[in-house]
């Protein structure tokens, strides 16, 4: 007899049936919170970090949505003591659980402020609910403040109690925030060093601007001495957030002044300093001491020593912070002025100090490029360094090239490297070959920062793609590269070329070599991906620049772009399965083909087209007639007479590209044949009638097209 297969029903959960999913009923009035909560800024992320670090700048309430009961079980009890001894085997599981619970409760009761924290947790669970009205939340916040009033400093260093106070700061008003801030007065540095209280301190800095100066001033004397907050694993992130996100220029200057040494701190306490000089940072401090070279040397030595303490402890993470980068740049800026304005002894001393600093932080440079000052530091090392120094820097940043291209500040380092490095073969190997891989290009072309990295290979510092601020910033290193010193003669403000620049090669020659080295890979990428790129507005800009300014054989890439247009018009799902829109109906694509046919971009200031020397519009026009027009020219006719007639301007430029070019074209026969063929397609009475009908329907470009046909 065959065995009967029994099928068991799935066992029901011991906790009962699954609860129904209930949508959170948010109350509109509940969202009337401080706008600064919603707009919380985040620090810039180093290019060496592949994922966002889970530190203070990315943490708000540290699990604000967890159950209050879960928090009650996280007070750090000795878990081993609560485990049931399996060897006894005399008590049931239920009895063991009761025993554990009783032991846990007794330990909690024995801890300081246990009743206070328990009561606070009860009210906290109500106050942080996401489904209550603003009025009800206000009631619970007031009750919670009454529970913890006077005890904030005693409980804030515990992980669960700290989160309770954070909720008070987040949802409370200015009164509650100021009251909590006053209770913590004198303990700000201790809070910054605490794993849990640091989040509360950051909330106070962010949400209580009126007390921000007092909190930050309490750190003075402890950033690099005494408590050494900047080298503390927890406190350093508090200082970093405060400096980069919340402090004003005066507060930042006060924090950076800690790097200048104790002598400066005492001097500034005893003497009133001109605000203008105080705003100049280290340079202003040195100007305050006048011509006393010994004092200046001691201050520079103090800065050097403090920076060395940071660079010698990279495991603390401080080297990534903007405050360190700011101090480093101020130090390098002083050395640069000594080299440019000083006498022979100053030049030698500045070069020695710069060399010592470079050797102490060479391996850490990739950790600095993501901030403005950090990027400027690395660019200064590139500009004033030797060929060997540049090779070391490029080797250090090579693993992070793609992420640097996507960062506004980090990419400036790559641009400066292209501006000052004479060894273009080294650039090709370390930078350009990485940027121009198909995978990297596919990533870069999707963001403005990435597109700028591609543009810099072909059209560096072009006003079409780079702002005036960016161009000026890149020009800051030109004097060091070219050997220009300001004010060599006494009282002179004019620069004079000394011939002792750090780069020997002409900038024009260097740019040509970089363009030549990157062109082949870029054109190959267009050949493979051009059909997809022209359909996207931003990507089509990159396509246009590559076609106009790259060097090499552009025929395969041109044919790819033209085959995209060769599909029947108007488009249908049968002719273009991936998209029902013909490329000629996309404004950016139509503009791209028009630009390529006219030979360059239109300059609105000069009211004329800037012809590119590296592009042959006539050859492109010949290929256009051959590939898009085919034997009968049907697609060319259709884009002028059917659908939206968006091809009128493109075909008008096609006619213009073939008019009068037989004498200048490299292939005179092909240009003449293409012109005659195009003329035969467009000059018929039927074709003219179709174009004129479009003019009656309001189609754009019909007059321009008729005039262009008349010139064929």
UniProtKB/TrEMBL annotation:
Region of interest (Disordered), residue spans: 1-24, 38-114, 489-512
Signal peptide bounds: none
Domain of life: Eukaryota
Ranges of biased composition (kind: Basic residues): 1-11
Signal recorded as keyword: no
PANTHER family registered for this protein in UniProt: PUMILIO HOMOLOG 3
Protein name: Armadillo-type protein
Organism: Lentinula boryana
């Amino acid at each position: 007899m065959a065995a009967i297969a029994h099928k068991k029903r799935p066992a029901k959960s011991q906790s009962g049936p699954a609860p129904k999913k209930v949508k959170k009923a948010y109350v509109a009035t509940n969202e009337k919170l401080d706008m600064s909560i919603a707009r919380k800024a985040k620090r810039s992320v180093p290019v060496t970090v592949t994922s966002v670090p889970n530190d203070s700048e990315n943490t708000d309430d540290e699990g604000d949505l967890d159950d209050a009961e879960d928090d009650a079980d996280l007070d750090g009890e000795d878990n081993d003591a609560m485990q049931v001894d399996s060897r006894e085997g005399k008590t049931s599981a239920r009895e063991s659980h009761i025993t554990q619970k009783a032991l846990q409760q007794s330990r909690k009761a024995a801890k300081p402020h246990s009743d206070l924290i328990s009561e606070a947790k009860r009210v906290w669970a109500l106050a942080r609910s996401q489904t209550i009205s603003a009025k009800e939340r206000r009631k619970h916040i007031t009750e919670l403040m009454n529970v913890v009033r006077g005890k904030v400093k005693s409980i804030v260093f515990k992980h669960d109690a700290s989160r309770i106070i954070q909720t008070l700061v987040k949802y409370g008003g200015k009164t509650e925030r100021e009251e909590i801030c006053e209770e913590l007065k004198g303990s700000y540095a201790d809070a910054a060093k605490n794993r849990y209280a640091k989040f509360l301190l950051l909330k106070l800095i962010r949400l209580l601007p009126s007390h921000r100066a007092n909190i930050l001033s309490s750190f003075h004397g402890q950033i690099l001495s005494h408590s050494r907050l900047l080298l503390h694993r927890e406190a350093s992130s508090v200082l970093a957030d405060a400096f980069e996100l919340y402090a004003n220029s005066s507060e930042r200057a006060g924090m950076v002044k800690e790097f200048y040494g104790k002598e400066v701190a005492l001097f500034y306490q005893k003497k009133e300093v001109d605000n203008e000089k105080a705003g100049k940072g280290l340079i202003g401090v040195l100007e305050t001491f006048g011509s006393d070279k010994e004092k200046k040397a001691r201050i520079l030595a103090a800065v050097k020593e403090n920076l060395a303490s940071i660079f010698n402890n990279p495991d603390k993470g401080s080297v990534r912070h903007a405050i360190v980068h700011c101090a480093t740049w101020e130090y390098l800026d002083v050395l640069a002025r000594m080299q440019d304005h000083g006498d022979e002894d100053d030049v030698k001393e500045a070069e020695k100090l710069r060399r010592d600093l470079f050797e102490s932080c060479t391996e850490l440079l990739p950790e600095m490029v993501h901030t403005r000052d950090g990027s400027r530091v690395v660019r200064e090392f590139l500009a004033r360094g030797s060929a060997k120094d540049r090779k070391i820097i490029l080797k250090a940043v090579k693993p992070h090239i793609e992420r640097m291209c996507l960062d506004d500040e980090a990419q400036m380092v790559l641009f400066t490297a292209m501006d000052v490095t004479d060894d273009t073969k080294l650039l090709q190997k370390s930078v350009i070959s990485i940027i121009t891989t198909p995978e990297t290009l596919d990533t870069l072309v999707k963001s403005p920062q990435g597109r700028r990295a591609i543009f810099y290979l072909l059209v560096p510092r072009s006003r079409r793609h780079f702002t005036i601020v960016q161009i000026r910033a890149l020009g800051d290193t030109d004097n060091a590269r070219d050997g220009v010193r300001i004010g060599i003669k006494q009282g002179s403000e004019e620069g004079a070329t000394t011939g002792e620049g750090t780069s020997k090669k002409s900038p024009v020659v260097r740019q040509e070599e970089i363009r030549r080295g990157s062109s082949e890979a870029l054109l190959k990428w267009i050949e493979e991906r051009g059909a997809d790129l022209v359909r996207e507005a931003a990507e089509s800009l990159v396509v246009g620049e590559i076609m106009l300014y790259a060097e090499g054989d552009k025929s395969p890439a041109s044919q790819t772009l033209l085959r995209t247009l060769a599909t029947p018009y108007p488009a249908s799902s049968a002719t273009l399965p991936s998209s029902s829109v013909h490329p000629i109906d996309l404004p950016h694509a139509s503009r791209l083909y028009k630009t390529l046919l006219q030979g360059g971009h239109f300059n609105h200031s000069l009211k004329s087209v800037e012809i590119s020397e590296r592009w042959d519009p006539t050859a492109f026009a010949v290929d256009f007639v051959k590939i898009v027009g085919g034997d009968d020219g049907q697609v060319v006719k259709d884009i002028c007479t059917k659908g939206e007639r968006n091809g009128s301007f493109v075909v008008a430029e096609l006619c213009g590209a073939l008019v009068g070019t037989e004498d200048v074209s490299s292939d005179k026969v092909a240009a003449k044949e293409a012109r005659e063929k195009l003329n035969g397609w467009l000059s018929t009475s039927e074709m003219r009638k179709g174009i004129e009908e479009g003019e009656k329907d309001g189609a754009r470009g019909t007059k321009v097209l008729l005039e262009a046909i008349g010139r064929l």
